[in-house]
Each structure stands twice: as C-alpha cells, then as structure tokens.
Design brief:
The complex is a heterodimer. Chain A contains 13 helices and no strands. By secondary structure, chain A is mostly helical. Chain A folds into two domains: about 60 residues, no CATH class; about 240 residues, MetI-like (MetI-like fold), CATH 1.10.3720. The longest helix of chain A is centred in the N-terminal third of the chain and has 47 residues. Chain B is α+β, with helices and mostly antiparallel strands. Chain B has two domains: about 230 residues, Rossmann fold (3-Layer(aba) Sandwich); about 120 residues, Nucleic acid-binding proteins (OB fold (Dihydrolipoamide Acetyltransferase, E2P)). Chain B contains nine helices and 20 strands. Chain B has a six-stranded mixed sheet with strand order 6-7-8-3-9-10, sandwiched between helices. Chain B has a five-stranded antiparallel sheet with strand order 13-12-11-14-20. Chain B is elongated, with a radius of gyration of 25 Å. The mean pLDDT of chain B is about 90. Classes of the chains: A mainly alpha, B alpha+beta. At the A-B interface, helix 9 and helix 10 of A face strand 6 and helix 2 of B. Chain A: Keywords: Cell membrane, Membrane, Sugar transport, Transmembrane, Transmembrane helix, Transport. Chain A: Its main location: membrane. Chain A: It comes from Geosporobacter subterraneus DSM 17957. Chain A: This is Multiple sugar transport system permease protein. Chain A: Belongs to the binding-protein-dependent transport system permease family.
Chain lengths: ~325, ~375
Amino acid sequence: MSKLKLANSNKTGLPNTDIFKKKQIDLKRVFSKKAIPYLLLLPAFIYYAIFWLAPVFAGVAEVFTDVNGQFTLTGNFKLMMHSDLFDKAVMNTALFAAVSVMIQYFIALLLAVLLSRKFRGAKLFMFIAMIPMAITPTAVAILWKTGLIKEGWINSLLMFLHIIKEPIVFLNAEGLAAVFLIILIDTWTVTPSVMIILLAGLQGMQRELKEAAYTFGANKWRIFVDITLPILKPSIITSIILRLIAAIQVWAIAVMVLGFNKVPFLVERIAFYVDAVPGVATSEKLAFTFSFTTTVIVFMVTIIYLKFAKRNTKIGGSS
Amino acid sequence: MSYLILKDLEKRYTKGGNLVVNKMNLSIRKGEFIVFLGPSGCGKTTTIRMISGLEEVSGGDVLIEGESILHKKPKDRGVSMIFQSYAIWPHMTVFENIAYPLKLQKLSKSEIKERVMAAAEATDITALLDRYPTQMSGGQRQRVAVARAIVVKPKIFLMDEPLSNLDAKLRVSMRTELKNIHNKEHATSIFVTHDQSEAMSLADRIVIMNKGVVEQVGTPMEVYHDSATKFVASFIGTPPTNFFEVSIEEMNNELFAVSKSFQYRIQQELRKALKPYIHKTVDMGIRPEFIDIFHEDQVKSEYLYDTVIDFVEPQGTHSVLIVNLEGKEAKIVTTKYMDIRPGTKVSLYIRDGKAMFFDRETTLRIK
C-alpha cells in the first residue's frame, strides 16, 4: 500500500529530478552500446566503399553514358548486341552453363556415392580425384593444350591404344565441338569440388535413416531416390548455384586453350575488349556493358533457380 | 511354444576376429517383453541387428515361429525396428513417414490411410500428421518412430535404446507408454538398453549380456535377488553389490568365510555347495541393503565386522553409508539410521542367507 502511494505522489507531484538524470545516463549507455558493432564494422565498410562500391558505381555509370559522356539508356546495349560474336557468346554461355553443370553433377554424384561406401583404397582414390581441384585454370589450360596439340599426349595415347589411326587436330575445333571441348576440360577441373560438397552431405547423413528404409523393404535404388537424394537436396542446391554462377563466368580456359574469338563466351568478350583491343573508346564501353549484363544474368538465374528449387523442396531439409 | 529362438547365434565382424556375440541361446514366448541389458560393447545391439537383418549372422540360427529367417529379407522377417536416433525421415511429413513402409508394400491409398490413422491414434499423434520432424520435440519424434513400427503389424518389435536421446523425465513417462503400447498391440518386444532401471521396470525377462556372452536370463526379481554370476551381481543394483575376497575354512563342523579382518559363519544351506572350496579363495558378495550396522533383535543375522562410518549420503527414502572394509569402500543402505553421523562406531551384521559366493574362475554363483 505504502509503495503504491509513493508512486502516485511521484506522478502527481513535482518531477523527480533524480530519475530524470538517471535516464539521461542510461540513454548514453544504450546509444554507445548499440553503436559499438557499427563502429567495429566501419573500417571494413570504408574499405568496401572505396575499393568495391566506387568502382561498381563508376562501372554502372559507364554503361549508361556514351563515348562522349552523354547519358544513354540503351545506346551501349545496342552497341553490345551488334558487336561481333555477341549472339554466339550468349548461345555458347547458355549451352556451356546448362550442359557442363548437368554433366559435372552426374559424375560428381556418382563419385560421391561411390566414395561414401568406404571401400578399400577409397582414400587414395579421393586423393587422386581431388588433384584437378588444386591446379590453377592457367595450368589446367597448359596441361590440356599440351595434350590436345597434334603431337600431344592424348593423340599418342589414342594411337597407342589403336583407337585412332591418324592424329586428331583438336585445337582446330570450331562451333559446338569447341564448346564441348571446353566443357570436357572444365568438367575435369571442377567435378571434384562438386563431389566434395555432395560427399560431405552424404557422410553427414545418419546411417540409421537409410537402415530404417531398408528394414521396411526399400531396395538400394528406392533408398537412394526416396531417402538419400531428398535429404541431400540442400547441399545439392547450394552446389548447383555455385557451379551455375561459375559456369556463366567461364572464359579463362577457352582463351588459354583456343585463344580469343574461337569460342566466344560473355566473360570472354569482356576479357577480349579489355585485353585484346584496349584503348579504343567503344571497346571500353563494350567491356563495361558486357560486365553489367553478365552480372544481371547471374542475379536473375540465381533468383529464378532458388525459387524453383524451394518450390520443389517442401521444407528446407535443414534440421 | 517359443515364438522366437536364437540358436548358438554368433557374430564376428572380421574373419577370425573377436566374437562380438558368442553362442547365444535364447527362446522368447509370444507377447513377452524382453530386455537386453549390458554395458556398451556387450553385443546386445549387434544381436537385435542380426534379428532385424541389418547385420549378417556369422554362425547359428534365428527362428521365428519355428522357421529360420536368416535367408529372408528384413521386410519379410516380420520384425520392425525402432532406432536410437528415431531415424524418421526429415523430408517427409509425419503421415508420409508412417505411410512409407506401406507404400513400399504397394497397398492401396485408402488402406494406407486407414492404417496410418490407426497407428497415429495408438501413439497419440493424430494432431501432428501434417508436421515435419524438424518442427517436433524429441518425445514426439519418438512417437512417430513407434507409430511407423506399429503400422507394418510386425511379429516382433526390436527397439535399440529408443529412450536414450530423451531427457530424464520424458524417458520415464515414455517407457510407461511403450509398455502400454506393447500391451495394447499384443506385441512381442525386444528392447535394448544399458540402463538397469529402464530394464527392471519394462521387462518380463531380462537378458544380461557381457562381452558377447549371456550371463543370465530371468525376471527382474530373479536377476536382482538370485544373480547367477558375479557380473550380474555387480551390474544390477545401485549402489552395487559389495565384494570381498575370502577363503573358505572349516571349524567345529561349520564353514567360515575368512578374510584378513573377519570370520563370517556361512549359512547352513550353502554347506554342501561350498565344501569343495575348503581352503580355496572365493568372492563373497553382499547387497548394500542386507547389511545391518547394529544387531537387530527381530532380524536373523550373522556378525561380520566392527568398523566406523566414513561418509553418509542421504537420499531421502534411504541413506547410503560408506564404511572402510579391508581398505576398500563398502556401501550400506539403511532406512532406519538415516541421520547417523560419520565417525560412529558400528558392528556390521549380514542378514541370514543373503551372502552370495562366486567361483573365482567361472565367476558362477556357488549355490
């Protein structure tokens, strides 16, 4: 009772200066506490602002101004679309992304399932399978180039095995054949990294989940389709996105093995306009526009894919 | 007639390796609730995995209703397994989880629905059928696992430590429920655990295993009060049985268990059995609640030893007294002197007929 009265008297009576002072101090403390994380992030933010945000904005600005510095909404895009090999670059990129991801996925899943069985020598096999992952794209290109030339080791091997009689001139490949050649090399390089993600998913899976299905009468194929694959879905989705993004940005191998203009890709175009024809004002514009377009495509593909993937997994398998 | 028979069942994981399960023989009647109890690595889980078909058998046979099931696939054996981790599939709803075994049997949709509903009702999860396992508690997941096991109408339920992932309180309520479901479904169950209180409260008969060997098969009361081996006497009961090394000596036509510090007169009934052990060393075991700390007039008992109370551990319903006996701790359970002070001088008496003797080589009880 007495406490209640006291509280009332405070409300109706004179303002309590003590409480007022305390509040001010509290506010200060709360403010500084909330500010600490931002203060700590500030250096990183400044770094990004100078070295990342600024160039990005500058780049975007380039895309929407013409050679004379005048604003143009579509001018540079028109320039890009009418540039040499644009159609081919788009087609090749789409083809490469779709086919390479599918092939790499199939092989990676196969390898991951195989390796998760822990057979004798599985560790050695895994070590060998991982080697391509450790080699830089440049080295990969050189490795394959020495194999693909007329006197290269691939021709020697095929001839030794009597599969072919005359050496094949791989590096003269054009059009589709060239794209598939690049797909082949890319698959050799990146399949291990896909496999690792899937293998981690497989090994993280509880053995009892599969055993339960087995005791209830599921055969190996049913267990794989009904249990393993759906549970693996989150890691599959993640790795497909990573692969897809990397696939859209392919260029280094194509240029290193076959050279510019042989198998045009979107990012190959960027490199071409920056490296091969530098200094020309329009080529600079084209490089920026290609960069911008590729980024937008990557964004869109990722968003569409995620939406599609989420609709098909009723629930994110994360537990 | 025996429903399930294990005949000289053996398991080794590698050729010429250790026997994980060693010539196991057991026969189970229809409707029995059997618990396999033992420390980890004793072969209990391996045994039910062999019955379920998850593990290959290295020797011996498993018969259900007189017929060997070893050549059969797991689903045709008429068993269903409940796993320690529940093993319910995270990408399926509760309904889909329970329905999956029936889907594999290619039953019609209406029959699947009917049977899933019945199983869900029996386990009290009808409200959860549309949920995913990630949205449920451990106890609820456990129920789903039980429902999925019930739905295939197995002859035998195999449960591999199904309660060990639950918290202590839930474990106790869940075990009552499991027993209820067992009774309602008129099931025959084998339940694996390393928790003796779980085993005692659930089992019709307990199979106590150690290092791949069955030490004793008996009702909870039998394994406690009539332990067949030293291992059983030491494994069952908290605090565990007190053991002393004694030699059997004959004086004045009576047998005594003699140690450095005491001479204990052995009850008349054991005379014949212990006679071959005269001048030999045996293990003497006494359960903590059969030791009195003072002579009680109404109780028939035999004097053992004078000592001092070192520690008192009050438990509410009883107190555990710790005394020093020949340099080893001996534990005594008392309900009468719960407030006794450490340092009190006491005289230990053993209740008549409660001392157990074990052969040192075979570890078998001498009786």
